[in-house]
Amino acid sequence: xxxxxxxxxxxxxxxxxxxxxxxxxxxxxxxxxxxxxxxxxxxxxxxxxxxxxxxxxxxxxxxxxxxxxxxxxxxxxxxxxxxxxxxxxxxxxxxxxxxxxxxxxxxxx
Length: 109
Prior knowledge:
By secondary structure, the chain is an alpha+beta fold. The chain contains three helices and three strands. It has helices spanning 22-31, 48-61, 80-90; strands at 2-5, 69-73, 96-100. It has a three-stranded mixed β-sheet with strand order 1-2-3, with helices on one face. It starts with a strand and ends in a 9-residue tail after the last strand.
């Protein structure tokens, strides 16, 4: 599992042209309270990761501290229980949590 937060988030690259769904996702993120969940799903290579990165960039541009955003990326063979432990350890530190490639975590379902 890869975990990115803080200044490392500023290094994420995404196409400059915003995804069509970005405004809707940003509106959702701005209007939700704590512990809200938004799930993006779809076929591979349709732009879900790009949308996540663009949403992170929008939060940063909007003044959210990069230390309050966590971006977790699943890798083949990762264990969902390990992700759960990581999230529990950081629940007081992060306001926004993005999980990409969640299907790579074994025992996810």
